[in-house]
Amino acid sequence: MNTKRMLTALLLFAAITTSVLPVRVAAQGRQPSPVAPRREVVAAVVQEAYDKFKNETKGKNADYIPYLAQVDSKLFGIAIVTTDNQVLTKGDVTFSFSIQSISKVYTMALAMEELGPNKVFEKVGSEPTGRPFNSPVAVVDMKTHTGNPLVNAGAIATTSLISGKDANEKWIKILDFYSRAAGEKLSLIDEVYKSEAATNTGNKALSMLLAKYDRIYADPFESVDIYTKQCSVGVNAAQLARMGATLANNGINPATGEQVIKAEDIPHILSTMTMAGLYDGSGGWAWNVGLPAKSGVGGGIVAIVPGKAAIAVFAPPLDEAGNSVKAQEVIDYVSEKLHYNLYSPASVGWK
Ligand code: GLN
């Protein structure tokens, strides 16, 4: 090959790599943290956790939403998606369950995309309530009334912040945003929506209380209806782990390379998850596990390990606070073994 040809070949190579790879190369935070555990280690721990907890029978399916009471309580799936998009799964990871309260994290993110974090903080706040997730007492008692975007009152207020010409446009925008965080198209589980819409008098009451305090920013019942739809979005454990990995990866979906959530919003989201992600169980969770996480009464929990991975576990039986028992046990075990606890020196490689 003469020099001219070689030069042309080189230029061609450079042109191809920069045009084919821009999404991958441009994405920041794609490389996992230098202290992230290796794939084989993660896979082994997932297997161990699955075997250790598969026969756990504590807890009870949620039954205040009739649909949830009849979901098979033996379903159990674990998924980890790393920030470089390695996927490790075990058990029932293709079963689609309702995302429920985990949706609140992503509507909070969307509200911040639209309004910026300061407005969301001002209009909703970020104070833990120390009360059950659906507490009307917290709305009355708290100075902000809304508490934070991860309890029902604050979540309904957050949903009411999403712009759109009508309810349908707002809902489609929310669903599309969740789908981008998951890296695939998500959809509503209609039966869950109908079941919850027929029984959600408590959430309607919360919305009216918020209206009394001027802390809801669109029609209260319309906002509850959109909120009920967002809670009825179906995800499987693998999709949920990828939604979590988008948060762990600085807002970039590790599968698609899309910057779904602004990097500067991530600390606000994760800190809120730490304080309120498991409701009145959040303090004990932070003490034991040390990871921002969010639970849903459908039986899912996702925990975020910034710069490393997200773990999603699905197992329907819940504890008193409304958090999946098995999911908490698995995430606790896995994060202990993999040194994921953010407050532990081992998480930065100091063993
Ligand atoms: N849709 C449920 C509700 O509003 C969500 C609650 C939850 O998952 N904790 O009651």
Describe the structure.
The chain has 351 residues and is α+β, with helices and mostly antiparallel strands. The chain has 16 helices and eight strands. A five-stranded antiparallel beta sheet has the order 2-1-8-7-6, sandwiched between helices. Helix 5 (103-115) runs parallel beside helix 8 (152-161), helix 8 (152-161) packs across helix 11 (201-212) and helix 9 packs parallel to helix 12 (220-231). The chain binds glutamine. Glutamine (GLN) binds at residues 100-101, 133-134, 152, 196, 203, 231, 296-297, 322.
Mean pLDDT figure: 93
Measure the end-to-end span: 53 Å
Question: Helix coverage percent of residues?
Answer: 40-55%
Strand line-up across the major sheet: 2-1-8-7-6
Pick out the low-confidence regions: 13-29
| Rg, nearest Å | 21 Å
